[in-house]
Structures are given as structure tokens and as C-alpha cells.
Amino acid sequence: MYKLRMFNMKWQLLNYFLISSVLTVSGIYIVLEYYETELSSWDFRLWFAIAILVVSLTVGFIATRRWQRKVDELHVAMLELSKGNFAVRIDMEPVEPFLYLYDAFNSMATSIEKRVQLLQKLGEAEAIRDQELTENAVMEERRRLARDLHDTVSQELFAIHMSASSLPKILERNPAAAPALMNQLIEMSHHAQKQMRGLISQLRPIELKDMSLQEALEKWFPEYCRTHELQGQLDVSLPELISEAIEHQFFLIIQEGLANVIKHASAKQVRLAIYEREHQYVLQLQDDGQGFERSDIPSASHGLSTMRERAQKLGGEVEIDSKLGSGTRVRVRIPRFSGQ
């Protein structure tokens, strides 16, 4: 079959060559047969040579243009495939010089689509198993947070109580020392409040059960931003329901991304967007923080690598765009297959 297709391609090339040759020979024959006397004129010879050249170039141009269109069509399809459009295929004509190339590309695209779709299904199954296996870990983490609550905030409150209890005596014996103690009380109470907010946000994670990701985010995201003194903007547009595994992985990625914003970005505003393209689900998290250079990524790469791993489980990818002083944008793309 391969040899037959190569033969067809070579035969079309030979056809263009034969057409050009036939036109050239026919022109020469007509001139020799009917214009023999005019051949003595150099002007006639020149125009005849120009005519032959124009005919040859025209045939060559038509052939080259047709083949260029075929190459461009293949190039565009390859670009679409590289961008994650695994459903792209090239329509083939019954008589097609590029038939074997187009057929090979379509077979390759079909194979890639099936493999990525299988990878996504396996990733979804693994994500569900991981979710079940982490229930005990979540309970243990809550116990740890309860201990932290006792060891940090409780001790802070006790220290505030002791300082506040001593304030009347200090006002009576040494009024000049009272302002310093009051400033210390304000600072300690603010610190305790921040710790309490952080622990509460960890103790009250978002619940996706019986809710879509969009519904859960609309309930949780504004509260999370208020807790951490961020101006948040949420834009979720998902016309179709997505699988539970993709929703779960999206949320874990959102958690990791927002944690990075709180820890490293020193941001005041954050925007979370989730939307759907023809062949992709896209999650984008953007902040106006301090940003970072690519060379600084290894110093805080744990969170970023975790997000990449979660996206790769579903056949997706993570793109990170950041610059010092210009904030950071994290874009996650997950393939969307027909029928999902």
C-alpha cells in the first residue's frame, strides 16, 4: 500500500512534467511546421523562447501552488495537534498526492487522542482512589491543626490575658509604661487573629459533595479571599458538567495556587477563571504580586511541581508566566474529549 501511494505521488509529478513537455514540443512542432520562414527573424525566436518559458513557468507555478496548499494544510493540522486539539483530522480526497502523508497523520492523531483519553481516564480513577485514601489523612491533619490551635492561638490569648490583667497595676504605678504595653497587646491580638483565620480556613475546606465546582467556589472563594485580606475576582463559565475527578484535581490545583499566592506573592488582588474551549478545559489563576524570575523557580518549586503533576495525571499541562513586579499567571489546560 505504501509503495502504491508513493507511486501515485510520483505519477502526479510525472504528469506535470509530461504536460509541460507536451506543450513545449507541440509549440516547437507548430513553429517548425507553419512558421519556418519566420524562424530566420531574431525577434520571432526571442518571442517564441519567451512563450515557451511562460508556459513552463505557468505549469510549474500551478503544480507548486497546489502542493504548497497541501503542505500548509498538513502544517496547520500539526500545529492544532501540538496545541492539544486531539480531534483534528485532515479530509482526504479519493485521488490525493499526499494521501499517504494525510493518512499517516490521521492515524497518528487518532492514536494520540486514544492514548491521552486513556491517560485521562486512568488519572481520573487514580484521583478518585487518592480522594478515598486521603480521608484518614484529612482526619489526622485536623487533629494536628487542633493541636496547633492549642499550642499557638491558645498561648497567644493567655499571654494577652496576662498582659491585660497587669495593665491596671501598671497604670497605677508607672503610667509611662502603659502605652508600650498597650501597643504590645494590639500587636499580639492582631497576630493571634491572623493565626486563627489561617487555622479556620484550613479546618473548613471546600466541600464538593453534592455541589458542582462552580457552586462550591462561589461559596468558598470570596470567604477565602476575605480571610487573607485579598480582593478576589471569580469567573467560572462551564456550560457542561465535567467529571468529578477533573473537578477534584482543579480544586486541589486552586488550593495549591492560592497557597503560593498567600505565602510568596505579597499580592493584593487575585483573579480565578475557569472556562471551556472546544477541546480544552482551562483554569487560570492570576495575581498582582511581586512575581519571580524563572531562575528563582527552584527555590519555591514544590507547589508548582505539585500542580504540574496533578494536571499531567489528566493529560494536561501547566503554563506559568511571571515577572518581577508584574505578578504571576498560572494557566492549566486539561484536554476535553467529545462525549465528556
From TrEMBL:
| Protein topology in the membrane | Multi-pass membrane protein
Location of the Histidine kinase domain:
148-338
Under Enzyme Commission nomenclature, its number is: 2.7.13.3
- Alphabetically list the UniProt keywords: ATP-binding, Cell membrane, Kinase, Membrane, Nucleotide-binding, Phosphoprotein, Transferase, Transmembrane, Transmembrane helix, Two-component regulatory system
Q: What class of enzyme is it?
A: transferase
Lineage top rank: taxon: Bacteria
User: Its catalytic activity?
Assistant: ATP + protein L-histidine = ADP + protein N-phospho-L-histidine
Q: Where in the cell is it found?
A: Cell membrane
Name-wise, this protein is histidine kinase
Q: Which organism is it from?
A: Paenibacillus qinlingensis
Cross-referenced SMART domains: HAMP, HATPase_c
- The record places domain HAMP at 65-117
Name the InterPro entries for this protein: HAMP_dom, HATPase_C_sf, HATPase_dom, His_kinase_dom, Sensor_HK_TwoCompSys, Sig_transdc_His_kin_sub3_dim/P
* Sample GO molecular function, one term: protein histidine kinase activity
User: Taking the first listed entry, what is the main subcellular location of this protein, grouped into a coarse class?
Assistant: membrane
Which residues are listed as membrane-spanning?
Answer: 12-32, 44-63
